[in-house]
């Protein structure tokens, strides 16, 4: 190190709290979501004395992580969370696992008791790195202030590189108060973590050879394409149009391919469309980009797409050959893979079997003709599907940039089925972990990142109560989030499974003693409205959208509606139930299937 | 750890993993950052995902570069062992993962200390067998012996079985350390 650099370093001696804030700034952070407490008071004191980073005060630490996830998913940036030690950290764990399962880049700064008290069962002490080890992509406990700045820089690198994920930095209070040197982010490569982003050209060639020879190809893409940035979604669209292949998206991948494009088959999986699932079942070549053959997608594994050659591109080698053995594996960033595939496709001289492809599309169109998402809106009782469909149509007419978050359950699946997404980063839902209470805080994070956009949390009356305290955050920061509750007075998905698999014994799934959501909204300085009749639905939606501030729209929907199509647990793609009228019940569900979640 | 869980394979519907023809043992060497919590990460990965650990050893191997080497003996189908390697490799402080069983011939050794208590003919028999097995006497009293022995696991097993009727009192083993034969090297990073 030169004398010059040394002088510079010495000049940059700061407190630990200042080092953390400086490192956040240097990593482009503008907003953090947090909740104060004893162990992080030095950081809050430093936050008070600066204006570069805005702090959003949530009402519960779990919500801070979901808000950071919403921020990250709608911007492609890293979301940042700040919580205190002990209960602050343990409350954040659900959000961390949610971000881990959905590969969302989040940095969570947790306070910790001073280093000399660690291990003494001090007040508000928890073994945060121990608890969060399986809940994060990686975590750190900083015990040496000279390593503090470097650790924060490394945490950002780890959170966003390769397959993104949450990273915890545990910060003992004496480290935050002590003084130490500030160091810039290193220009050198990480010592051990260097994920492969560029695909192997030989594998790309092998994939294109299979695709060119395919008679019944299908492309199935997931959250990896969204995580790879908007350019990856553009390349996906270009590739599908160049090849003429049908394209289906996972729950996590919605928006990567425009829903209005005729090549789009809709979502696949347990509540996916008939045409998407049958195309997966009947294809001869499957190209999976940035999805992980999740059990919600594959159905019964030994009956999954039995006659296809499978190509899997993923940035995480551990996702490949985990559930489904594939024929061609490509490790790389989804955008880089799509670019390479597109170039190789265009350069490859082998002709495509256009006749077979046209025949395949005729088959797919016949499956489409079953119109698997049809429902009958015949009476005054609002069908939940209709409520989502009208919400979609009315917001589309308005032409505003619209972001949708959801909670978890039936309403989430209806939102995925009936709300069409044209662009990536507009759809935020808890896919892997299935966290009820995700949607409202996630919507806060989205609205913070996009103050002028329309942000709607499509919710259920049960899920929304899991983080309802965040109404306070909406009020404090005047966040005009619209909460659109499909209120069927049941934990609908639980009720549906009880009806189909447990002899209609509705054990504990009725939402008893619900609040008056209109008054609840008003008590949190928001507006509330309730719609109970189908003929008032459009007016209710328009009223909700016209209100400039936060709104809860409580939409009373049919109580016993089930979410279809459905692949019952333990069944295969070609054994899906289309709907109440068309199904022969679920007599086919075996005890083995019942074991599955 | 150290417990052979093959007798209790993780419950999978229908398919018993041990009946899969690709079910095998694997000796995996992992080069890691020598830092706090790394062993917990590796062990937690195995317990969290239901993989077997038959033995695990760890020690620093390069102080200057802060590197430790972990040797894990595990078992599973080819697909599971591929998963284990990929899961290990994506841990941030992991430098390199090598499946010694798959990648070619390798040496695997264990160190054992074994205590035999007895007098008279039993004691003489223990010493004779130890000589045949090239075990060294590292502690002796008039009624006890402690042998030190290195070798492949089955050799150690055989010695333990021979000592059992003679007066076997206590055994401690390190678990397997292993290295590839020939010029191939894991630490050339």
What would you say this structure looks like, in words?
The complex is a heterodimer of chains A (about 600) and B (about 190). Chain A is an alpha/beta fold and about 600 residues long. Chain A is about 40% helix and about 15% strand. In chain A, the strands form four sheets. In chain A, strands 3-2-4-5-7-6 form a six-stranded parallel beta sheet, sandwiched between helices. In chain A, helix 4 runs parallel beside helix 5. The model of chain A is unreliable at about 1-5 (pLDDT under 50). With about 190 residues, chain B is of the alpha+beta class. Chain B is about 30% helix and about 35% strand. Chain B is built from five helices and nine strands. Chain B has helices at about 40-50, 80-90, 100-105, 120-130, 155-165, and strands spanning about 25-35, 55-60, 65-75, 95-100, 105-115, 135-140, 145-150, 170-175, 175-180. In chain B, the strands form two sheets. In chain B, strands 5, 6, 7, 8 and 9 form a five-stranded antiparallel beta sheet that branches. In chain B, strands 2-3-1-4 form a four-stranded antiparallel beta sheet. In chain B, strand 2 and strand 3 (about 65-75) form a beta hairpin. In chain B, helix 4 (about 120-130) packs antiparallel against helix 5 (about 155-165). The longest helix of chain B has 15 residues, at about 155-165. Chain B starts with about 25 loop residues before the first strand and ends in a 9-residue tail after the last strand. The interface of A and B includes residues 129 and 325 of A.
Short description:
Chain A is of the alpha/beta class.
Series of H and E elements of chain B: EHEEHEHEHEEHEE
Number of helical elements of chain A: 23
How many angstroms does the end-to-end distance of chain B come to?
Answer: 29 Å
Strand order of the largest sheet of chain A: 3-2-4-5-7-6
Main beta sheet strand tally, sense and closure of chain A? 6 strands, parallel
Number of strands of chain B: 9
The share of residues in helices of chain B is 25-40%
> Helicity level of chain A, as a percent range?
25-40%
Low-pLDDT segments of chain A: 1-7
Quaternary assembly: heterodimer
Strand-residue proportion of chain A: 15-25%
What pair of chains forms the biggest interface?
Answer: A-B, 23 and 22 residues
Strand content of chain B: 35-45%
The residue-averaged pLDDT of chain A reads 95
The class by helix and strand makeup of chain B works out as alpha+beta
Which stretches of chain B are low in confidence, meaning pLDDT under 50 for 5 or more residues running?
A: 1-14
Cα distance, first to last residue of chain A?
57 Å
Largest sheet of chain B: 5 strands, antiparallel
Instruction: Specify the overall morphology of chain B.
Output: elongated
